[in-house]
Design a protein that fits this description.
The complex is a heterodimer of chains A (263) and B (268). Chain A is mainly alpha-helical and 263 residues long. Chain A is built from nine helices and no strands. Chain B is built from ten helices and ten strands. In chain B, the strands form two sheets. A six-stranded mixed sheet of chain B has the order 6-7-8-3-9-10, sandwiched between helices. Chain B has a four-stranded antiparallel sheet with strand order 2-1-4-5, with no helix packed on it. In chain B, helix 3 (99-110) crosses helix 4, helix 4 crosses helix 5 (144-155) and helix 6 (174-191) runs parallel beside helix 7. The chains are: A mainly alpha (263), B alpha/beta (268).
Chain lengths: 263, 268
């Protein structure tokens, strides 16, 4: 009985220590990225190339999703608002939901699924095929050459993608609210203009998307760099990227929203 | 200046509680082709990684050009690595780059040469390995032998003083094997470099090596010129060189009695 309990607590303790160890390794990895970032800024073409892969190639899925999210928001919003005779406020509801929450959060979740997994798999495979070791042996730092440009590409892409997501989402909401439901176009735009505040809403959304960009890209890069160099190792790392990024985004969203509302 | 460009002195290395190397001593003279041989899992590739500073020894030291590798800071290690070229077992070519870009990679990273000069140098290196015509192919479009040759061109791109080869003959057809074999010797002599070859292909390496080390059970079990080792009566060397089934090197990994194992699995 005692040995079974000891074994159970030992197992829990071991897992906690393992998680803490990985968290520490992740922070050290982040510090290395910052240290080596100067080299990647000097060769900006590397970062621009990665912005194309992580940002531009993610555009289609982001924009299509944004359009549908905006349309659903308008439908659901109208359904509720009309009960209170406030259907003219549908533009405000769509815009605030997108700019404050759904824009940054859904963009980050889609980014983790589309670009994050690609980053993890690519770096994991580079490790498995000894490309990173080869780079090291050529006196080229893999963090400076491979990791840092991808990190900054992710961090720069995320707020831009989130802004486009919100913009196309609002357009989707407009398409449902105005031509389909018949809400007055002037009321849709003017109420939105009057109620959406730059600092309170848009700036906070941008801050969120930058933080999500750091979190999602860092997790994707770390999981790839830390993956065991086997097919199974890369596959598990890719799964961890999606799970950990999603949890991080939702957790950070709650924390940041709390601070922003209190402030 | 010492005659030896690499010196391994009483080196021990291991993972967790298992020591892979137990006090290994080796020297690699300038201008020579030296082979490190031994069975699978004897730690040959690990020795290359220790020379390259990718691993740190438990005790002892590796000296490259008179400098202790594991005591170097980042810039010191980078400076030492610029003297080295390494051919990885599977080539380790960058799959997002073409053959040309792969060979140009170290030149672009470490020199400020104009593009026209880089082009000339890349063409020279690719011509040396017979793949000038394949310069526009992607790394993923190459066969195993071609990938190995491109990797060799990349490894010697900056004319290193030390060239390390990790299983350069593994999985090659006889023609590719002979080509790589000649390339290793010719490049070594042309560049005045020192080559360290890790392999278990006896005949090929004996035809080009000046000196051979045999590693077994974590120590240097035998050493000498290929001629000496061919004549060696040491049981381990004899078994390895002649590819004999019976000898001190067991084929089976340590396991309990076969009969008892089978009976236990049937619950008899």
């Amino acid at each position: 009985m005692f040995s079974a309990l000891a074994g159970m607590f030992g197992g829990i303790g071991h897992r906690i220590i393992d998680r803490l160890w990985r968290f520490g390794s992740g922070l050290r990895f982040f510090a290395y990225i910052l240290i080596y970032s100067g080299e990647s800024f000097r060769r900006l073409h590397l970062t621009i190339r990665e912005i194309y892969f992580t940002g531009v190639l993610s555009l289609i899925i982001m924009l299509v999703s944004a359009f549908f999210v905006g349309m659903v928001l308008a439908l659901q919003g109208y359904n509720t608002l009309q009960r209170y005779g406030s259907s003219e406020a549908i533009g405000v509801l769509v815009a605030l939901s997108l700019v404050r929450e759904l824009g940054p959060v859904v963009t980050a979740l889609l980014f983790a699924g589309r670009a994050g997994t690609a980053i993890t798999a690519e770096i994991g495979l580079m490790k498995a095929t000894e490309q990173l070791s080869a780079m090291e042996m050529m006196a080229v730092s893999p963090i400076a050459r491979v990791v840092a440009p991808r990190f900054w590409a992710g961090v720069l892409s995320m707020p831009l993608l989130a802004a486009l997501f919100s913009m196309v989402g609002v357009l989707g909401g407009y398409m449902v609210a105005v031509p389909l439901i018949g809400v007055d176009s002037g009321a849709f735009w003017s109420q939105m203009q009057a109620s959406v505040d730059f600092k309170e809403d848009i700036l906070n959304g941008i801050i969120k998307s930058v933080v999500f960009g750091v979190a999602c890209t860092l997790i994707a890069l770390f999981e790839g760099f830390d993956a065991p160099p086997t097919a199974e190792g890369v596959s598990r790392a890719t799964t961890r990227t999606v799970v950990n990024s999603s949890l991080a985004v939702l957790g950070l969203d709650f924390v940041m929203t709390s601070f922003m509302i209190v402030a | 200046m010492s005659d030896n460009i690499v010196e391994i002195d009483n080196l021990s290395f291991g993972y967790k509680n298992r020591l892979l190397h137990k006090g290994i001593n080796m020297v690699f003279p300038r201008g020579k082709v030296v082979a490190i041989m031994g069975g699978s899992g004897s730690g040959k590739t690990t020795l290359l990684r220790l020379i390259g500073g990718q691993l740190k020894p438990v005790s002892g030291q590796v000296k490259v050009a008179g400098k202790v590798v594991h005591e170097q800071d980042r810039s010191g290690l980078q400076a030492l690595r610029r003297k080295m070229g390494m051919l990885f077992q599977q080539g380790a070519l960058f799959t997002d780059l073409s053959v040309y870009e792969n060979v140009a990679f170290p030149m672009r990273e470490h020199t400020d040469l104009p593009e026209s000069m880089i082009r000339d140098l890349v063409m020279m290196k690719l011509n040396a390995v017979g793949l000038r015509g394949a310069r526009n192919l992607k790394a993923t479009e190459l066969s195993g032998g071609m990938a190995r040759r491109v990797a060799l061109a990349r490894a010697v791109a900056l004319d290193p003083s030390i060239i390390m080869y990790d299983e350069p003959f593994a999985g090659l057809d006889p023609i590719s094997m002979a080509v790589i074999c000649n390339l290793i010797r010719n490049l070594n002599d042309a560049l005045g470099a020192t080559s360290i070859i890790v392999t278990h292909d006896v005949q090929e390496v004996f035809s080009i090596a000046d000196y051979v080390y045999f590693v077994a059970n974590g120590v240097v079990a035998a050493e000498g010129s290929p001629e000496d080792l061919r004549k060696s009566e040491l049981p381990f060397v004899h078994q390895f060189v002649h590819g004999e089934v019976d000898g001190p090197v067991p084929f089976h990994y340590a396991a309990p009695d076969y009969r008892q194992d089978i009976l236990r699995s049937r619950n008899v």
